[in-house]
Amino acid sequence: MSFVIWIIAAIFSLLGAVCYAELGTTIESSGGDYSYIYELYGSFWAFLQMHVNVFVIQPSLHAIISLTIAQYLLSPFLLYCEEVDSAYKLLAICCLTLAAALNIRNFPKASNYIDGCSFTRLAILFVMISLSLLFLTCGHTKNFWDPFVNSNTNLLNLTLAFFYAVFAFSGFNSANIVSDEIINVDRNLPLAIFLSLPCIIGLYFLTNIAYVTALPINILSHYSQSALYFSNEYFGFLYFVIPFSVAVANFGYLSSSIMSAARICAWCSKNGHYPKILSLVNSDFNSPTVSILFTTFLASIMALCCDVYTLISYTSFAFYTIVNACVIGMLHLRYKRPFIRRPIKIPIIFPIVYTIMCSSFCFVLIISDFFTCLVAIFVSAIGVPLYVLFYKFSHCFQFLQIASEYLTQFCQLVCKSNFESTHYISNENILF
């Protein structure tokens, strides 16, 4: 059943990717979802999207990665012991702090380390997949004889499993964030999407085959750190190598994610959506220090308060609600402005099917994990008064401006930071 879930999740993500290929070539503006919401719905909804991204999606993502790192670093020493959540959370916060410090002090060179971590991750998967193929050729096919035995067919559990699988493919819209920086975007953006996602799908599918081939079914169904048990089973006294390598690879991802979130935060501040304190740049290291500290603080709170699976539900609900809104906007744009330039025009059935699937799964997620979704909706709704206070009618609240000025001056002194040249959005080009 797990392979069926992964296949459905892969098809779902491919549909979303082709929709974003059309969006990215039709609305050629960096910012990804923010730019699309701004162009399709207007400033207010764009502000809410960015608010959800900064306060829900990005901190949750950082917390998930840091908790995963902590689990893989500590689990080799606690493999057959009772798990200690407080130790995982403490180590996760340490990882977040270290990643933030690296981004603050070595911001221009962080990409080199991130590239190295990505190659480490690919090397780990290559080793595991190669071993599993060797086992298959030797006749280790017992786990494939009855693939649906003892499968959990509860609809709510299947939906949660689907969201956990889809979470692995949630970066399909990453290239759209920098679309206007891509050379020959009409060709290279769709090419990047159509080449990268099938490769990722194939890699994950082969990795799942490796797990099913090499590990007992009871281990796969009851434990989340499959790579740890794989290493413990086949690497002997070097069993710590794969968990440590997984942690190092994920730390690179955490570092890049914090860097991206800080840039988004600073960009919103430059465009007047957030207080200008978040656009302060360190004069020694040329890094958005305040934004990095702010995003790390939010992620630390998430890591302390929630477990990994709750965070996945929390961020998936928010993320796919925004993605669904973008695809619905694309459908409306097809109807309202049918003759605008579209270098890529996908069949209309693709966004319709994607919207139906996305809406259905979000609805089932609300039913299955109502409280988590309610918290996400509540945090999103806080963006409404923030829009009024800090953007739309900020001139009416002089005391907030004065407090912001004092806080900005304080952070300039403490963080040795100053402002870069600002660029504000001057008009609203609403297509609805």
Structural class by SSE content:
mainly alpha
Number of helices: 16
User: Taking all residues together, what is the mean pLDDT?
Assistant: 78
The share of residues in helices is: over 70%
What does this structure look like?
The protein is mainly alpha-helical and 432 residues long. The chain is built from 16 helices and 2 strands. Helix 1 packs across helix 6 and helix 1 packs across helix 12. The C terminus is likely disordered.
Give keywords.
432 residues; mainly alpha; two-stranded antiparallel ribbon; disordered C terminus
Short description:
71% of the residues lie in helices and 1% in strands.
SSE inventory with pairings:
Blueprint: H1 2-26, H2 33-41, H3 43-74, H4 85-105, H5 110-137, H6 155-167, H7 185-214, H8 217-222, H9 226-234, H10 241-270, E1 280-282, H11 289-305, H12 308-336, H13 349-368, H14 370-381, H15 383-392, H16 398-414, E2 417-419
Antiparallel strand pairs: 1-2
Helix pairs in contact: 1-6, 1-7, 1-12, 1-13, 2-3, 2-12, 3-4, 3-10, 3-11, 3-12, 3-14, 4-10, 4-11, 5-7, 5-10, 6-12, 6-13, 10-11, 12-13, 12-14, 13-14
